[in-house]
Specification:
The protein is 38% helix and 16% strand. The protein contains 15 helices and 12 strands. The chain has helices spanning 2-13, 21-33, 36-49, 57-69, 134-152, 172-177, 232-246, 285-306, 325-338, 345-357, 395-399, 430-452, 454-468, 490-501, 513-517; strands at residues 73-76, 85-91, 95-101, 156-163, 186-193, 201-202, 207-216, 255-262, 273-282, 309-318, 322-323, 404-410. The strands form 3 sheets. Strands 1-2-4-3-5-12 form a 6-stranded mixed β-sheet. The protein has a 4-stranded antiparallel β-sheet with strand order 8-9-7-10. The chain has a two-stranded antiparallel sheet with strand order 6-11. The chain is globular. This is Amidohydrolase.
Length: 528
């Protein structure tokens, strides 16, 4: 009787996996393949907008219109950010969030498909990070999965959302603070890469705080009576000197860098106001906080030496990344099913020309050769064993609150420098379009798994609670009164938006953005 009872209990508690799930995955993969043209149009359109963080107005209007037309309910202006939104559909559990970044890079304007520097608008912003591709990928996935959910009456809620101002790490900690993820069961995030891959555990990157220090003194004639001035610029320079001496006594995992955002108006007037903007990066919350505190102390010291005053304001923040094992393992099985795109001779020719032009290394950081586009899938990577630190992404703030993975999809060229016009070359070409389709199929198949197999999300929360957050608890740098820095990039976009509008993609007239720009794909050498 006892053994029979145990069998009955196990039968009652064992998650029920829908036997039709594999058929639905094949169906949705085939459907997304048939929508390659939609992927191309969306990717090219967002590429042409070229909008910096907090000013992704055209991007937001365009993408939410598509979602609204497909039955999603839009909530705009979330977390105090005019270009932030959510698009939700469905009801009940599981509640799955789908996100990707949308902003671009300053001075990265670049014509796609040409293997040399050729800006669309000189000195304008451009998609030199590839953020024009992630949300089009997710929109295709969500629309096709929604069709199956409606037809089969599958419970669940899908919520799409943009990573606004990711280059400023300026939104996701605010999304968490304001409760937009409080009911979410799991999050799938996507980011452009050069292979189709996912990983779990400690990602090896740094978290950060982004903070501006604003000094104020008093002005005077720089030649006539400089002794009557209190130079705010002197305070900025002294702070920078102090911080640069401090670097010697920081861990080798730190990264810190700054730009002077206000250095005065003209040389003959001693600056009464000046400001400097810092990123303080480290591997743990405690070390980031220590750098932040040191920065404040050094700023106060510089103010004391110059008899000026100083204030500071937080502009952005991100935690170090840590991602979910259970969801990553489920996703990797679908990666293996979908596989890499079939690259054409032209695709590979452009990739190799860009690698040569940009001085790409012969191997990546894992020792894999860099020679054209990837033709072999990445493996499923677990936690890094050692890291010297590096970049940051505020998706980590989501991941420390909700089980999250990041799908990397192959829409860019291996070996590029990052945050550069070079990284924009592929982002409105067949390379980007094919990579988005492959990524979209992977996400859609993973969504079917999560909607039909409750064990995936149950295991995801077990990992999240018992491994990821067992000893490390999330503490935000953003308090209740910290406003998002929506004023950033305003002047740049006011200058360049009118110039960029002349180059917005018109899919009613042109089959591709390459065609609209009159580019022969690929163009490997500049005509002299």
């Amino acid at each position: 009787m006892l053994s029979l009872f145990c069998v009955q209990v196990l039968a009652q508690t064992k998650p029920i996996v829908n036997p039709k799930a594999e058929l639905w995955k094949k169906e949705v993969i085939k459907a997304i393949d048939s929508r390659a043209k939609d992927a191309q149009v969306m990717v090219d359109m967002v590429f042409s907008f070229s909008e910096l963080g907090f000013h992704e107005t055209e991007t937001a209007a365009y993408l939410t219109k598509i979602l609204e037309e497909n039955g999603f309910t839009i909530q705009r202006g979330i977390a105090g950010m005019p270009t932030a939104w959510t698009a939700s559909w469905g009801n009940g559990k599981p509640f799955i969030a789908l996100g990707s970044d949308v902003d671009c890079i300053p001075k990265a304007s670049q014509k796609p498909g040409v293997a040399f520097k050729s800006p669309i608008v000189e000195d304008a912003p451009g998609h030199g990070e590839g953020h024009n591709s992630g949300l089009p990928l997710l929109i295709l996935s969500a629309i096709e999965v929604k069709k199956i959910m409606e037809r089969e009456k599958l419970p669940g809620t899908l919520m799409l959302w943009p990573g606004v101002a990711e280059e400023l790490v300026g939104s996701k900690a605010w999304y968490i603070r304001d409760g937009y993820f409080k009911n979410v069961d799991a999050c799938i995030f996507t980011h452009v890469g050069n292979n189709l891959g996912v990983s779990w555990g400690d990602a090896g990157n740094n978290g950060l705080v982004s903070v501006e220090f604003m000094f104020e003194g008093s002005a005077a004639h720089a030649a006539g009576a400089p002794w009557r001035a209190k130079s705010a610029l002197d305070a900025v320079e002294l702070m920078n000197i102090g911080w640069n001496y401090k670097r010697e006594h920081l861990k080798p995992t730190q990264r810190s860098h700054y730009v002077v955002t206000d250095g005065g108006d003209q040389p003959n007037v001693v600056p009464s106001k000046a400001a400097v903007w810092y990123y303080f990066r480290e591997r743990t919350y405690e070390d980031i906080k220590a750098m932040y505190d040191d920065g404040i102390r050094i700023a106060n010291g510089a103010a004391m030496m110059t008899n000026t005053t100083v204030k500071h304001r937080l502009l952005g923040t991100a935690w170090p990344g840590h991602f979910n094992k259970a969801i990553a393992e489920a996703m990797y099985k679908n990666i293996q099913t979908v596989g890499l795109p079939t690259w054409s001779t032209d695709d590979q020719a452009l990739a190799r020309a860009v690698q040569k032009m940009s001085g790409a290394p012969k191997k990546d950081f894992r020792g894999n050769p860099i020679d054209g586009l990837a033709v072999k899938l990445d493996t499923l990577y677990g936690p890094v064993q050692f890291s010297m630190g590096g970049g940051s992404d505020d998706i980590a703030d989501i991941a420390w609150n909700v089980p999250t993975v990041v799908l990397r999809f192959p829409s860019n060229i291996p070996g590029t420098p990052g945050h550069s016009w070079v990284d924009g070359i592929a982002m409105a070409t067949p390379i980007a379009h094919k990579g988005v389709v492959a990524g979209s199929k992977t996400v859609a198949a993973t969504l079917i798994d999560m909607l039909t197999n409750p064990k995936i999300i149950a295991d995801a929360w077990t990992y999240h609670n018992n491994v990821q957050t067992k000893d490390v608890k999330y503490k935000s740098f953003v308090d209740a009164d910290t406003r998002p820095a929506v004023f950033l990039n305003t002047e740049i976009m006011q200058l360049f938006r009118p110039k960029l509008k002349a180059f917005y993609y018109d899919p009613s007239k042109y089959n591709s953005y390459l065609e609209q720009l009159g580019i022969t794909y690929p163009t490997l050498e500049e005509k002299k």
